[in-house]
Amino acid sequence: MSRLFGSVRSRATLGATLVVAVALVAAGTALLLSLRANLTGEAGTRAERSAQAVASELAARTPLGKLSGLDAEDTPVQIVDEDGVLLAASEDLERISGTGTSEVTPAPTRSHEDGRDDRDGPDHRDDDRGDRDDDESLEPGEIAQGASYTNGTATVDGDTEDYRFAAVEVETPDRGRLTVHAGAPLAAEHSAVGTALTAMLIGFPLLLGVVAGVTWLVTGRALRPVEGIRREMAAITASEDLRRRVPEPATHDEVARLARTTNATLAALETSVERQRRFVADASHELRSPIASLRTQLEVAAAHPELLDLDGAVEDTVRLQNLAADLLLLARLDAGERPAGTRVDLAALAREEAAERRRVTVEAEPVEVSGSRGQLGRVLANLLDNAERHARERITVTVRREGGEAVVGVADDGEGVAEADRERIFERFVRLDAARSRDDGGAGLGLAIARDVAVRHGGTLTAGAAPAGGALFELRLPLAGSDRGTARP
Predict the structure, then answer these.
(1) Distances (CA, A) of 30 to 23, 24, 160, 164, 292
(2) How far apart are CA 44 and CA 31, in angstroms?
(3) Which of 18, 113, 402, 429 qualifies as a cystine partner to 282, CB 3.0-4.6 A?
(4) So what's the pLDDT on residue 118?
(5) What b-and-e string marks burial along 35-47, b requiring 16 or more CB atoms within 10 Å of the CB?
(6) In which band, very low, low, confident or very high, does the pLDDT at 79 lie, cut at 50, 70 and 90?
(7) What is residue 136's predicted lDDT score, i.e. its pLDDT?
(8) 182 in Cβ contact with 166 (< 8 Å)
(9) Within 10 A of 487 (CB to CB), how many other CB atoms are there?
(10) Residue 12 pLDDT > 80
(11) How many CB atoms lie within 10 A of CB 270?
(12) Residue 242 predicted with pLDDT over 80
């Protein structure tokens, strides 16, 4: 069960079904209440019309025994006086409730020849009006406006039903204030409400089933590409083949964007892993040479001490030490090491790095950046080492401010770098001059380290053509305190 409702598809289907169920129950309840209120109101209107008709006859001095409203089969009627005494009732009325009096048989009275009660004489009627404090003053023959309503039951000729009763008061000229209770059956209201309720009880489950089925199908169709992405990612994880890509649906929704982002991540991961593999292979190759040379010299010295090339051994050791330092720095940069946030004066740093070198001219204005003094000094040292290997006579270092950036330029008057190779030279272990010896050309890590350090400081390092015809390497860094003066991840 937990596995079933652990899927997005199941939860979406359950959620949609519950929402629709709540909406249907609320709408159905409101519909039933509205239907019942309307039908009850219509029954009350019919009952009021019946009561008004009887009250009109009473206002016209119609004798109780000749009232036409007492003959209706589906309209039980009661006429009571001010004291609640039943004066007249419908024929065949056997039982009644909800009208204020449950009497169905009129009280016995002594009648005159005209059919009126002896207590209805002028003197008795006048006394009653004199002693009464009416809520509504009515003139003789006048019928009260409006009616009061109640619900109850009545048994007419053996049939018991629910009724809506209306009570209407009338001031009769000869009997005083009388109240007419007339009822209208609620059978139609009960039938309509029952039919609607039955339809809802049958229709709602069917509708909820349809909603659940449609939601299940639509959600499954929408999530099908996600399942394809999941299966492909599982296969990539199992095979460790980063060249594979997840399928991208031909849509423009969130799933398609997820697939494209996933493929972009896989591509970046593949590039990173491939770069790491090349790095390890190249590092192993570069380390093998000085180690093998040093071992050979030591083995020869062990057998023939007089043949020991001490200078060569020291040179190989220094070369091995520098290469190890370069590899360790690249490893720290690849691991995301952030540079320190100290302020560094690039003009002073450039003069310091050029002080021990010949043929180097520095033209600098004070410019401060935020970063690691040691790493930025390594960038300038690597650029100057590269320029010294290629310059004929002169190397120029310039430091200036340009907008919100500090610009450091290192130019030489050598042969320069071909435009097609100006990006390739920043790759690790790349040496453009195939004839150059390893001792003179280095391992091909200097420019790669310089660019990585520049990027970690939020800047750039590019290669171009110098005005004197040689190579120009331009380092751009954000000024200290600027928004860009933070290291990139």
Answers:
(1) 11, 10, 29, 22, 92
(2) 20
(3) 429
(4) 42
(5) bbeebbeebbebb
(6) very high
(7) 61
(8) yes
(9) 18
(10) yes
(11) 15
(12) yes
pLDDT of 365 reads: 92
For the cut 90, the answer to whether the pLDDT of residue 281 exceeds it is no
pLDDT tens-digit series, residues 421-440: 889 898 877 766 543 444 44
Map tokens 């609607």 to a residue.
Answer: 196
> Residue 442 — very low, low, confident or very high, per pLDDT cuts 50/70/90?
low
User: What single string gives the DSSP state of each residue in 230-282?
Assistant: HHHHHHHHHHT-TT------SS-SHHHHHHHHHHHHHHHHHHHHHHHHHHHHH
Q: In 10 A of CB 252, how many CB atoms?
A: 8
Q: For residues 12 and 5, give the distance between their C-alpha atoms in angstroms, rounded to a whole number.
A: 9
Could you identify the residue written with the tokens 């960038």?
Answer: 379
Residue 29: what pLDDT? 93
Inter-residue contact 154 to 183 (CB < 8 Å): yes
- Give me 300's structure tokens: 């020869």
DSSP, collapsed to helix, strand or coil, labels residue 400 as strand
Q: Which residue has the tokens 């039955």?
A: 198
Smallest Cα–Cα separation from 224: which of 265, 256, 262?
256
State the DSSP H helix or E strand holding residue 29, giving kind and residue range, or none if neither.
helix 8-59
Beta strand 360-364 pairing with 395-402: parallel
Going from N- to C-terminal start, the domains of the chain cover: 1-241, 242-332, 336-478
Give residue for tokens 């025994």.
65
Q: How far apart are CA 76 and CA 104, in angstroms?
A: 10
Strand partners, 461: 475
Look up the CATH number of domain 336-478: 3.30.565.10
- Characterise 98 by phi-psi region: left (phi > 0), alpha (psi -120 to 50), beta (else): left
Residue 344, judged by CB atoms within 10 A of its CB (0-12, 13-18, 19+), counts as buried
Overall fold of domain 242-332? Helix Hairpins (1.10.287)
Mean pLDDT confidence for 449-464: 91
d(CA 378, CA 309): 31
3 state DSSP class of 79:
strand
Lowest mean pLDDT, pick from 91-95, 158-162, 218-222, 325-329: 325-329
pTM check: above 0.70? no
Find where tokens 């970690």 sit. 456
Phi, psi of 218, deg, nearest 5: -65, -45
